[in-house]
Amino acid sequence: LLEPDFNREGERKMSVRGRLFSVKQPYLLEETNGLFLSAMRENCAYQYNHCGPYRKILDGLGFAPEQLRVYEDLARLPFLPTLFFKSHELLTMPRGRTPIEATSSGTSGKMSRIAFDTYGLYCGLKMVLRLGRLHGLFSAVPANYVLLGYKHHKGNQTAITKTAFGATLFTPAIHREYALKFKDGGYKADLDGVICALLKYSRSSFPVRLVGFPSYTYFLLKSMDEQGISLKLKKGSRILLGGGWKQFYQEQVEKHILYRLAEKVLGIEENKIHEFFGAVEHPVLYCDCKNHHFHIPAYSRVIIRDANTLEPVKNGETGLVSLLTPMVYGAPVLSVMTDDLGVLHDAAECGCGIGSPYLEIIGRVGLSDIKTCAAGAAELLRGLEL
Asked: If you count DSSP H runs as helices and E runs as strands, how many of each does the chain have, helices first?
């Protein structure tokens, strides 16, 4: 689990990245700004020295890792659009040193493939343990699971499939029922099978946890409601949502509608529904608070950029969502820009008691549709012939 290149002499001194992901209070931002900057600088230097395409990008943009001198310099660190990873595979380490590779969902027709180093996975585990405990996700009481997503198949390496299964480790899992099963060369939805499983689980003395896409969760609840099926699942039952609405964005409903339906059909109250945000190119866990806002953990930073100039905007203004984390060394994903539009709000606007700002996702926009500097940046990267 030793950090690459930083412990060649065998010393046991913890790396900067290790210290950052050992922060016990996961929402301390201002207090960890210096630590975060140092971890980002080390990651940037490692990527620069070990990933030729990334070095070519930084050289082409006139940026060097040592230019990360003060915290404000992070906004100047060149970002890679998440769309760029869908057409370029960038590896910083040999595959033998990256035990896990994961892909994006590929709903746009192309998938990002990101490699994760061993120590980065260890840091991610510590992050999940701290955030999971803080948000009350762990329990020693066994539970039956309904996964409203893909059942694992050897041809499916998507991050959402891996993280959905990982969510079933928050409690001892008695049984796992999947909504999307691989059959005849493709995945088939089986909501009827899920409903039968829920009816069976409702007669058990153990709680039930539903995990997966909010779209499939809504379709399931709506189908049960239309059939007049109403259950009262055991105390401790929860719903864990993640992955967004993807190709079902036109069917997307307001959160309060989904929450009311969950209580009506399954007896699960709103405070037992949790939503997560993340991406394969930015594997930081964002858990919603009691007011259902995604506060920024100490292990990442979020910059909202003006769609025309790509300059950072003030909190409360809408722009493109740029995500930073020093967690991964297997690929140069330390600074990425998504195709999401979002707003960063001051912590005081929430009132839940968490002291870090929170991210609101407004919608999605393809970078190819932005005839601005963002399109020019993407054009520059293509011109480097990576």
From this structure: 10, 15
